[in-house]
Every structure is written in structure tokens, then in C-alpha cells.
Amino acid sequence: MSEMPDNYVRLVERMLEQINMGQGLEELLDSVYDQLRGIVPYNRIAVALLEQPLNLLRLISCRSDGDVILKVGYAARVDGSTLAPLLETGQPRIIDDLQKYLVEKPQSASTALIEREGMRSSLTLPLLADAKPIGVIFFSSRATNTYTQSHASLLKRLAGHIAISLERNRLVSELQRTNQELAAANSAKDKFVETLQDEVDKQTQQLRQSESRYRSLVKMGQIVNSSLNRREVFEHAAEQIHVLLDCDRVSLILSSDDEELRYGFAIEFKRGEREWVEISSQPMPESAFGWVRENRVPLVVRSLDQSQTFPEHKRLVEAGYASVVHLPLMSRDQHVGLLGIASRHSERTDGWNLQLLDEIGSQLSVALDNAAAYGEIDRLKEELQQQNVYLRDELHTEHDFGNIIGDSRAMRQLRVAIEQVALSDATVLILGETGTGKELIARAIHDASSRRENLLVKVNCAALAPNLIASELFGHEKGAFTGATQRRVGRFELSHHGSIFLDEISEVPAETQVMLLRVLQERLIDRVGGSEPIEVDTRIIAATNRDLKSYSEAGHFREDLFYRLHVFPIQVPPLRDHREDIPALMNHFIARFSIRMNKVITRVDRRAMDGLMQYDWPGNVRELENIIERSMIVSQGDTLVIDASWLSGNPEPSNTKPLVGNHPSLAEMECRVILDALSRAGGKVYGHDGAAAELDVIPTTLYSKMRKHSIKGSRKHNSSD
Predict the structure, then answer these.
(1) Are residues 68 and 51 in the same domain?
(2) Counted domains in the chain
(3) How far apart are CA 390 and CA 461, in angstroms?
(4) Within 10 A of 654 (CB to CB), how many other CB atoms are there?
(5) I need a surface site. Which of 124, 321, 504, 608 has the fewest CB within 10 A?
(6) What sign has the CA pseudo-torsion 123, 124, 130, 135?
(7) Tens digit of pLDDT for each residue in 342-359?
């Protein structure tokens, strides 16, 4: 590094030009940071200045390629610090390994901070003006042993120019004050002072504009991020834009889910009043919206009278506007919408700072994107809450959560099995014939477990179409298949921290069995169309009326999945194996149906009970429940009527007599009533003294019932009829 690189020489020359042109420290550092790369290794450059009389060293500027922890504004006393010798001697300091350095000198707080930023070596040079230290410049690298004395020599000249710039700025400030004091006393230098003052005013105006721009952006950021409602975000932003630009209309156009349509809203300002305007859905092609969306650059129209290329511009002219600017709103490289700013004066756009508008648009884009995202989150949260409410209502209102009925040995053994497995998280396989109450067993296990406060989600696998069962169980992402317009949460996610009951597990398609096996092994699911696995904490309870072992051996069900499910099998006995529980079950069903039907049943005939006890019950408890419900419907009085044909499966009673003692059937009672009425009416049906009038029915209706019971009668009419 004996010869200075050409890039370095050009950098120094450029710095001299910038100093001569009066540019500030930030511009110089930008040039240094951008142009010094490739000449000297660095990842971070910072400048700190001495402040008197407290003898503080304060960080005033920093450039880094990563996150900054030692931030601008940081200050520390020089006395007793590790930088004090450097400022006293004016010699550069090289630290080859910051971590080792901190072990030796842990009191160096600023070194610890840049080490946390990932820096591993540094080169520090004093900034000297008139041989006096005014500050330091730091060069830092993420690698150890980066800097040498050659680097120090090369950068020493650069540090001198930066010191000159800083000192020049200080001297200019002092000169300005001095010139202002001398202006009144030295009339000969009025022209010089006036020129200098104009320059100062110009610089001050630029500074004020920069400060105003910064404050405007800060305020805009605070405003647009103060709400998560897109309308409120736009409303606040529009008011601020109106104040900044003195514009007459601010509009926001958003894309709808249908990419061919657009919608939005605008606020028009006139004589201190504002009016909210809704922009209805309209086709997007061949519009300013479509042009800006496609080209992703602002569209500036200085005079709408001379340019009406797009339909929006024609409508603006009709509304009295003369100029407009359309700005694309982008967030995460996605098009959010279109910001429009219009004025009733032509060429008003010439006075608008497009760079400022672009920065405002960037802030508004992020705020709108966040508002849309939070809106979607709220929508999904509400949807999930509705699903939870629906499922909880379904579980607690449509199903019986009472105790399992019966005190037979088989039912006692079943209760013991439930108690044994309930408090564990083991997978349970419930085996039993149709109608034995497998779902009730699953609910009993869930209600006795530690997961009772969360959902038990029921899935009837046989009721789901094979091409939809994976989506139902594991959910799907938007666009995963035709018709998947939104992301959907599956049953497994819905049962997180709860239990899931997979009824008719043997009917699950082979491809879905593989996914179930992964859930059992790893507790992970993948949504259909998704790429990220989702962890689920759910207890699996499966049920089937098949011999699942034989079914798997026959190749219809995966054996590995069978053994994963067969951790704790529970065999639910058929009703014919615990007939002694039939009376208790009958009492339970009669009590429940009595409330529903508003009936009081207190007796069951012995013959009827004997018939129930002798029946084989192929439909098990469910068949018994249906028989009792049917009996409750047809029973009159307080005695339960059970037709023997119901147990044989014949829907027509035929000549079979009801399983009761001396109690007549409803048909027999109806026949007797009709015969008694006809007897009292002398066989007459019609007329005020006929049987129909006595029974308070229409004569044709009575004739219909008479034919039903094979009763012959008379059609004589009373003379008064």
C-alpha cells in the first residue's frame, strides 16, 4: 500500500470539491462510505466530536452495513477513557481483536457496543484542526486483524480533510455571527455581508425545508399508524396531505379480490369543508389505475384540460379539477392501491415535492397493508370463535353427556377401562357393533380427562367424500384446489389442546391414512397446499364397528396405523350381552322422552318387558332408544305400548297383537267410540242428531273411518238438513 490507489486520490479530490462547495459532514461521509469500499476494508464508519467544557466525546454520525447498537447521540467522558491517550498524542489506534481487547479493558463501553454489532477489529484516528484534537473517526471491520499501519497512514490524510470540513463548518458558523455583528458598523462590506446573508438564508431555508419534511414524515407516520381501520388510516392521511400541499382532493383506490375490479374512496376539500366520496367498483383495464399498477411509477398530469387519456381524468375535469398526481402504493413488492392528489388549479403539481409524496406513499402503503392484515386476522379470529361457539353448542345441546347407563358386569368393566385411560393422553380405539354407544364412550373419556375444558371434535370419516377428507381433517391453504378461495382450519387444528373423535376410522382412504400416521407419530400436520408443518396437541380417539385387525391383514387398512391406534382398545359390549341393563336403559329413555313429549309413563307391561328382554337387539342401544321413542309417541295414558311387530322389523302390525295386558289399542278404542255414537244416533251419520255431530267431525271423515273399521251405517238425512 506504498502508493495511494487511484480511487483514493479521486475520493480525496471529491472531498476537497465538496468542502469547497460548502457541503456538510453527512454528504462527505456518504462519499467516504460509498467510494472508500475496495480501498480500505470496513463495515462501519463513525465520527465523534469533542464537546467543551464537559470534555465529552459525542457520536454525531454513523454508517454501517448492519444493525446499529452504538447510535448517534451516544456520549462519554474523555477523561480516564481508552481514547484519552489517542487524543493527547494524536496517533492512530489499531485494535486487532475487540473481544480480547474487552477482556483486558472491560470498562470500554463503546467498544463493547460495537462488538455486539458484530465488529471484531477497529482503526481509530484523531481529527486534528490546528494541531488540536476536535474529535475522532472510527473504522470498524467484522474480521479480526484487519487494519495495519499502512491503512492508518492512508486514512490519516482522509481524516485530516474530514477535520478540515468540521472545522470549516465551525468557522463558517462563527464567521456568520461575526459578519452579522459587523454589518451595522462596516457599511463598506454591506454587499459582501448581503451576499453571505443570502447564502445563509438559502442554506437555512433548505435546512428548514428538510426539517419540515422530516417532521411531516414523522407526523404522517404517527397518524397512519394510529389505526388499524383502512378508512380511518386514509382519512387521517388525506387531512395531513391537504395541509401539506393545499390540494383539493385526495383519493385512494384499492384492488378488490377480483383483480379486474377496483373500489375506493376520496375526500374533497372546499372552503373549509370536506366531503366523503365513495368510489364504487369499476373495471380496472384502460384506466389510470391500471397504468400506474402496471408501470409502478407516479403519473403526473399538469393540466387535465390538455390530457384526458384515462376515464378518471374526464370525470375529474367534469368535477372542476385541473391537475392530478397518481402515486402507486407498494408494500412488500405487492401493489396495495393508488393514491390520487388533485387540485382545481392547473400546474399546481409543479410545486409539489414528488420525493416527499413518494415517502408519504410508502408510509401509507405499509399502514394500509397492516390494516388489511389485521382485518384479516380479526376476520379469521371471529370465524374461529364462531366455530368454537357452534361446536360447543353442538356438543352440549345435541348429545347426552349423562352417565353411562347400566350396572351389569360388562358395563362396570367398561367404566373401569374409561377411568384407567382417561387421565392419560394415550390413543384409544373403541371397538363395537353399530348402535352400542361408541361416541358416548369417547365423550366420557374426554370429559374425564385433563382436556375436558377444551373441545372434543367429532369427525364421521364415513360421511366425508374421499377427495375432501384430507381438507376437512388437516385444513387447506387458499388456492390449494379449485374452490379453495380462503384458507381453512382443519379439524385437528380445531381440536388443539382438546380431543378428536374419528368415528368409522376404517373408512379413511389410504392416502389419508399416511397423513394420520404422521400425526400419531410426530404430532405434526400439513394443510393441503401448505409447505410449513403445524404442530398440534390433540388426543386421538378412534372408533369402528369392523374387526380392524382382520381388515388391515386383508390389505384394506395400514397395519402400522392399526398398531398406532391399538394402544388402548376398548370393546363396547352389544346389548344382547348385558340384557340386565335393559330396564335401566328404558327408564332413562322414558324419562328423557317424557320431558320432550310432555307425557307421563309410569308402567311397562310385563309381557312387553319380557319381549324386550328376549329380543336379540341387532341395532343395540340405538335400536332400543328408537323403539322407546316410537312407543312413547303412540302410547295413551300412563302405560307404555310396544307393538311386537316392531321387534321383528315388520312395519305393518298385521294381526299381531300389542305386547300389553288387557289394554285396548288406539284402533280398538276408536272403533268402539264410533259404534257407540252410531248406536245412540240410530245408525244416522248426517244431521244435527247424527253420529258425526255427536263426535264433532265432518260426516265424510266419519265415513272414511267407518270404512277403515268395516262399520256399516246409514246415509239418512234429517228433514231440517
Answers:
(1) yes
(2) 5
(3) 20
(4) 11
(5) 504
(6) positive
(7) 888 887 778 787 777 888
Q: Are residues 161 and 12 in the same domain?
A: yes
Which residues are registered as beta bridge partners of 568? 428
| Claim to verify: residue 564 and residue 625 sit in the same structural domain | no
* Residue 510 identity: A
pLDDT of residue 405: 86
Please report the DSSP string for 620-659 in residue order: HHHHHHHHHHHHHHH--TTEE--BHHHHHT-SS-TTPPBS
For the chain, the first-to-last Cα distance in angstroms comes to: 135
Q: Is 539 in the same domain as 420?
A: yes
The DSSP string of 246-299 is --SEEEEEEE-SSTTEEEEEEEEEETTEEEEEEEEEEE-TTSHHHHHHHH-S-E
Residue 609, domain member (yes or no): yes
In a domain, 182, yes or no: no
Q: Where are the alpha helices (DSSP H) in 36-122?
A: 84-89, 98-104, 109-116
d(CA 424, CA 426): 5
Same domain, 251 and 109: no
CATH number at residue 335: 3.30.450.40
| Domain of 51, in residue numbers | 6-177
Residue 1 lies in a domain: no
Inter-CA distances, 593 with 273, 283, 391, 604, 647, Å: 68, 60, 24, 15, 20
Helix (H) / strand (E) element for 430: namely: strand 428-431
Are both 23 and 134 inside the same structural domain? yes
CA distance 656 to 594: 27
CA neighbor of 248 nearest in space, from 231, 267, 223, 235:
267
pLDDT at residue 663 is higher than 50: no
- Return the residue matching grid coordinates 400419531: 520
Instruction: Verify cis geometry, omega within 30 degrees of 0, for the bond prior to 53.
Output: yes
In a domain, 32, yes or no: yes
Geometric angle at alpha carbon 149, from 144 and 151, rounded to 5°: 75
Handedness of CA 631, 635, 639, 641 (dihedral sign): negative
Last residue of a domain, one of 556, 573, 590: 573
Beta-strand pair 568-571/428-431: parallel
pLDDT of res. 271: 80
pLDDT greater than 70 at residue 721: no
CA dihedral 710, 711, 712, 713 (to 10 degrees): -150
Residues 411 and 525 in one domain: yes
Nearest one of 32, 57, 28, 46 to 117, comparing CA atoms: 46
Q: How far apart are CA 677 and CA 496, in angstroms?
A: 68
> Is pLDDT above 90 for 651?
no
Within 10 angstroms of residue 395's Cβ, the number of other Cβ atoms is 16
User: pLDDT at position 668, please?
Assistant: 65
Neighbours of 526 (CB within 10 A): 17
The candidate with the shortest Cα–Cα distance to 542, out of 435, 443, 429, is: 429
* Residue the block writes with cell 438564508: 201
Cα 20 to Cα 10: distance, rounded to the nearest angstrom: 15
Instruction: Cell numbers for 577, please give them.
Output: 350381552
How does pLDDT run across 517-535, given as a tens digit for each residue? 999 998 998 888 877 788 8
Average pLDDT, the chain: 80
> How much is the pTM?
0.43
Could you list the beta-strand ranges (E) of 639-720.
639-640
In angstroms, rounded to a whole number, what is the distance separating the alpha carbons of residues 495 and 476?
16
Same domain flag for 331 and 412: no
**Rounded CA separation 175/168 (Å):** 10
